[in-house]
Amino acid sequence: MNGIFMLTFTPSDYEAIGLSAKVAFSATLLSLPFGFFMAYLITYCTFRGKMLVEVLINLPLTLPPVVIGYFLLLLLGKNGWLGRLFEAVGIRLIFTWKAAVIASAVVGFPLMVRSIRLGMEAIDLQLIQASRTLGAHWYDALLTVILPLSLSGIFAGSSLMFARSLGEFGATIIVAGNIPGVTQTIPLAIYDYANSPNSENMALSLCFISVILSLIVLIFHEIIGRKLVRRI
Amino acid sequence: MELRVNVEKRFIDAAMAFDFKVAGERIGLFGESGSGKSTLAGMLAGLVQPDKGEIFLDEECIFSRSRRINIPPERRRISIVFQQSSLFPHLSVKSNLLYGFRRCSPEYRTIDFATLVDVLKLEKILQRGVNNLSGGEKQRVSLGRAVLANPRLLLMDEPLSALDDVLKFQIIPYLKSVSEHFKIPYFFISHSLVEMRLMADQILVVASGHIAETTTAEQLARTRMGQSPIGYINLIRVTEPRRHEGLFAYRWGNGDLLISAGNDQAEALFELSSKDIILCKQHPEAISARNLLTCTVLNTFVSGNRIGVELACGGERLMAEIVEQAAIELGITAGCKLYAAIKAAAFRRLG
């Protein structure tokens, strides 16, 4: 790279930026109900095998993303049981942007559950007990007490999940491939540029966008988080 | 309200077995911290499940392990006022108050919102968030929320413990309104004998996870007087304050009391320990105590290593305690005349 760094984007870079945002947003949205349910289960329910469930939820944190991607490939591929199930209803997942969403959702899931769980654990148990003795069924207490008081945790989990999805590489490349305009997200495009001669400027431009997006998400996360804490 | 309880609950480090039957409107659950009072309240409300046994409220079985009956908390119609008020922080005062009311079946709605707001004097804070309320306001809202759920039994679990003394006695009239105004029977849970005497008629004494005794607040105070470092607490209600020689003179019974911790409010409540009363057989010639009351001994009783002396003073009653030797020397018997000397500083203002 010679001289001054200039932001340079190709049409496929714009597609990669758009796809990254779409994948991260979809993965966050997809994980949210499951994450909330698992956090509720772990925080408030006592059952046999609870520790195993916790370990399984946190497993993606310690597994290499490539390993997760490979398992997803086996599961969602043509011969995988879930893949066959989707094929039967005419949905193909492997090497589509939907596969990238699933990969991001699986990798970021523990972060979301952990944050929501922390939010739920901070709720005074007597508030839930009070709501029950005031006539609220468990689902009523869940919607009117636990959900609103977990908002800061939900928001923190969603932001972390979104940010993590923006940077997801290992599992995505295995299960969705690196097809420009179809499954190529920002990290995959940077990977391509890093392996091509004379593409430093383009790679740096995408790195810059990556940093900006992450900063926006984290700043937003801090602002909303503080507002919610003040409210509660 | 009639309650029949026969339950057992085992924890890792404690076992509880409650077996009692009680009927009344103002029942106290008295005991030291950790004795099992709150666990019992939790079992009544359906928040803690007993290991075995049965609970009947007004002849309805709300829990029976053997018959597999366990009515969930939301259908028991037993509300709780907690020590820490436990108001929903994301809701306004009004929304907190209406939380239980909206979930109460219309057939049970005998207490309406406007009456409650009026009785508990909540009008000015209805639109406020609960985080900006004072301790006393929070407890009034918490009480209102529980009452508006129109319960058939209200459990007040140490609702005054988190408040300072002045606030505590400002809240008590509101707590009493539960029974007096709204006609809801309640269980008042506390480790304070003074609170018990103000709030409850019948007392269940809880000790080490079981009901050790069923008694009245007055009887309990007398029994414990001898062992208690603060003695028997006389609750003195006085009126018509006026300033006198740097003190406050209050009307009490047919006479006056001189009190140093007074103020200009028309009515006041003071506590006076039985240990702070000096009894004399004859009128002392000169004495520094500002109050010298002529009394008649109503009765005497033994409490630990002390003798309790119940006195009639100008239409009011007073409890003093002395050691046995003093009782012999003074020749105290029922009906004899005595003088009770009390320092003006011995009275502690409650409300």
Structure, explained:
The complex is a heterodimer of chains A (232) and B (351). By secondary structure, chain A is mainly α. In chain A, 76% of the residues lie in helices and 0% in strands. Chain A has one domain: MetI-like fold (Orthogonal Bundle), CATH 1.10.3720.10. Chain A is built from eleven helices and no strands. Chain A is globular. The termini of chain A are far apart. In chain A, 41% of the residues are buried. The model of chain A has no long low-confidence stretch (mean pLDDT 91). Chain B has two domains: 224 residues, P-loop containing nucleotide triphosphate hydrolases (Rossmann fold); 117 residues, RNA polymerase II/Efflux pump adaptor protein, barrel-sandwich hybrid domain (OB fold (Dihydrolipoamide Acetyltransferase, E2P), Beta Barrel), CATH 2.40.50. In chain B, the strands form four sheets. In chain B, strands 7-8-9-3-10-11 form a six-stranded mixed beta sheet, with helices on both faces. A five-stranded antiparallel beta sheet of chain B has the order 2-1-4-5-6, with no helix packed on it. In chain B, a hairpin with a 2-residue loop joins strand 17 and strand 18. Chain B is globular and about 70 Å long. The mean pLDDT of chain B is 93. At the A-B interface, helix 6 and helix 7 of A face helix 2, strand 7 and helix 3 of B.
Nutshell version of this structure?
The complex is a heterodimer of chains A (232) and B (351). By secondary structure, chain A is mainly α.
- Mean pLDDT of chain B comes to 93
Helix content of chain A: over 70%
From the spread of the alpha carbons, the general shape of chain A counts as globular
Q: Taking all residues together, what is the mean pLDDT of chain A?
A: 91
**Approximate shape of chain B:** globular
List its traits:
heterodimer, A: 232 residues, mainly alpha, MetI-like fold, B: 351 residues, alpha+beta, Rossmann fold, OB fold (Dihydrolipoamide Acetyltransferase, E2P), 2 domains, six-stranded mixed beta sheet, five-stranded antiparallel beta sheet, 21 strands, globular
